């Protein structure tokens, strides 16, 4: 629900034995704690070498956007060069299409980078397509439910090589020359933007990193203020849809980051976790929100990570993860505002499946007090989905947004082992710009962090981080902040956000150690 106040295969044979007791008791081995300093733990022994080997390959010296040109000051699109992909995710051996518009007509290239660690460079160049012929493409008419669906011809097609590892891939679009061969922009240089997609696989892995691309699209204002929140009659007007068949515009809130144009929200909230996991050699594979429609998707892994701003879910995603917990998979909600709005997938006008999402309802209900104070902000949406707190451990409460410190509430819990944290110790500014509160009534649930956020710098809200045991030695952790990944790494191309008079301070050894403890506990479980 993130907006400012004004706009307002199955895994069956799993570890048997005690659950709640095992989660509440022993920390990581003392010998390991003594050997490994804060923040420098490696992946658990026995982890796959797939990601470690991938990150030994040469990193790219130049993958970021250097020259970005928006259509106007304060605008959202970069019509000089922009594009989108035919699929949210694609498997090796499958084809993906790239749709690109250049205005004026120009030659361009697409450099494709896999995002990771790569010796600290953050990305690896895997393919260059071009030079290609670009031309201006039409802005689509406004369709039913205010949707904008592009029907551009494919500028390039690529069959994903079998050698490409699962990951988040950025395609950097760069103009080369005008159509007549002259320099672009009258000889003053080139222009750039991104496209973004996920390469998925189906191999067993320790960790499944789910990007939050439904939410990226919900807030995407391309071409000129057309997101789920920009209906002329109000931010929560019903019957508004958005399409994946359009470029990602400049990100419109919390941080000014024009160098991220075309990449959704990945570089803003999720990239530091990707970088950190691969730096430490964790056996990680990647998927999109859409991939979670498949019930078996998380069952090939030991831990699922929900990352950043993960607000918009199809109810089938909820059911998939609820089932995963029953089957023994741990979930780490390193995110906030999670599973807040019900957004079913529907097909595009072209007939392509699952390319449109529409906001139809909220998941759990507001409390009586919240309804009285803030119910008008939610507009006409019913509570038609399951209660997100019964999966996440807590729910989005109002005020929806704010910032504050992440405060340790239960230092004796195993997740704090090796951090040196005491009750009341704080990680400055880590909570924001949205959070979870009101813990669910789940057997064995523990509040491990809690404190106050201030919305607008003045209006208080209460956040709670929680953990509860699953039925098969697994667990579910809720970090209660969109900014958890900001405490893990500061990779190239990433900028710290600022919102509500609060901001995270960047990598913190205690956040790194807590995350190591959580991930290592999850993947150490027998499978």
Annotation keywords:
single chain; 527 residues; alpha/beta; Rossmann fold; Immunoglobulin-like; 2 domains; seven-stranded mixed beta sheet; five-stranded mixed beta sheet; disordered N terminus
Strands, helices and their partners?
Elements: H1 20-24, H2 30-35, H3 50-54, E1 82-85, E2 89-91, E3 95-101, E4 106-115, E5 123-134, E6 156-159, E7 167-178, E8 192-200, E9 205-210, H4 213-218, E10 241-243, H5 266-279, E11 284-287, E12 301-309, E13 312-313, H6 315-326, E14 330-336, E15 341-342, E16 345-346, E17 356-358, E18 361-362, H7 368-374, H8 389-392, E19 404-407, E20 426-431, E21 446-455, E22 459-469, E23 475-478, H9 509-524
Structure report:
By secondary structure, this protein is an alpha/beta fold. It has two domains: 18-32 and 201-524, Class I glutamine amidotransferase (GATase) domain (Rossmann fold, 3-Layer(aba) Sandwich), CATH 3.40.50; 82-183 and 191-199, Immunoglobulin-like, CATH 2.60.40.1930. The protein contains nine helices and 23 strands. It has helices at residues 20-24, 30-35, 50-54, 213-218, 266-279, 315-326, 368-374, 389-392, 509-524; strands spanning 82-85, 89-91, 95-101, 106-115, 123-134, 156-159, 167-178, 192-200, 205-210, 241-243, 284-287, 301-309, 312-313, 330-336, 341-342, 345-346, 356-358, 361-362, 404-407, 426-431, 446-455, 459-469, 475-478. The strands form six sheets. A seven-stranded mixed beta sheet has the order 11-9-12-14-23-22-21, sandwiched between helices. Strand 22 (459-469) and strand 23 (475-478) form a beta hairpin. The relative contact order is 0.16.
């Amino acid at each position: 629900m993130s907006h400012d106040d004004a706009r307002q295969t199955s895994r069956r044979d799993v570890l048997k034995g005690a659950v709640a007791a095992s989660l509440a008791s022993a920390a990581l081995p003392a010998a390991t704690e003594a050997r490994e300093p804060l923040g420098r733990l490696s992946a658990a022994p026995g982890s796959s070498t797939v990601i470690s080997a991938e990150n030994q390959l040469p990193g790219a010296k130049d993958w970021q956007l250097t020259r970005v040109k928006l259509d106007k000051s304060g605008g959202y699109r970069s019509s000089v060069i922009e594009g989108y992909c035919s699929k949210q995710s694609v498997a090796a051996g499958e084809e993906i299409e790239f749709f690109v518009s250049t205005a004026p007509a120009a030659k361009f290239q697409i450099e494709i980078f896999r995002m990771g660690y790569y010796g600290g460079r953050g990305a690896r160049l895997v393919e260059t397509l071009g030079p290609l012929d670009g031309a201006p493409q039409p802005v689509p008419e406004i369709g039913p439910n205010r949707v904008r669906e592009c029907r551009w011809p494919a500028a390039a097609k690529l069959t994903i090589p079998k050698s490409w590892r699962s990951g988040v891939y950025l395609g950097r679009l760069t103009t080369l020359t005008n159509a007549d061969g002259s320099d672009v922009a009258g000889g003053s240089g080139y222009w750039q933007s991104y496209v973004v997609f996920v390469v998925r696989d189906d191999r067993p892995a320790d960790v499944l990193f789910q990007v939050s691309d439904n939410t990226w699209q919900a807030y995407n204002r391309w071409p000129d203020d057309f997101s789920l929140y920009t209906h002329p009659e109000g931010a929560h007007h019903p019957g508004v849809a958005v399409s994946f068949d359009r470029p990602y515009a400049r990100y419109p809130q919390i941080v000014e980051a024009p160098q991220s144009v075309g990449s959704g929200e990945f570089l803003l909230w999720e990239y530091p976790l990707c970088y950190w996991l691969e730096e430490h050699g964790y056996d990680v594979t990647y998927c999109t929100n859409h991939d979670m429609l498949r019930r078996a998707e998380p069952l090939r892994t030991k831990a699922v990570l929900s990352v950043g701003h993960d607000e918009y879910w199809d109810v089938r995603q909820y059911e998939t993860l609820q089932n995963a917990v029953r089957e023994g998979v741990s979930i780490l909600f390193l995110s906030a505002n999670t599973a807040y709005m019900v957004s079913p997938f529907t097909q595009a006008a072209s007939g392509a499946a699952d390319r449109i999402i529409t906001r139809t309802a909220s998941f759990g209900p507001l409390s009586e007090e919240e309804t009285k104070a803030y119910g008008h902000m939610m507009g006409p949406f019913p509570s038609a989905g399951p209660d997100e707190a019964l999966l996440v451990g807590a729910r989005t409460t109002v005020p929806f947004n704010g910032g504050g410190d992440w405060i340790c509430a239960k230092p004796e819990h195993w997740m704090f082992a090796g951090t040196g944290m005491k009750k009341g110790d704080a990680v400055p500014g880590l909570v924001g710009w949205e959070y979870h509160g009101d813990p669910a009534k789940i057997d064995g649930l523990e509040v491990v962090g809690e404190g106050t956020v201030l919305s607008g710098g003045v209006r208080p809200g209460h956040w709670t981080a929680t953990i509860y045991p699953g039925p098969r030695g697994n667990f579910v952790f809720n970090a209660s902040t969109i900014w958890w990944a900001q405490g893990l790494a500061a990779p190239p191309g990433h900028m710290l956000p600022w919102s509500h008079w609060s901001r995270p301070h960047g990598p913190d050894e205690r956040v790194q150690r807590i995350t190591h403890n959580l991930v290592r506990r999850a993947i150490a479980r027998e499978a």
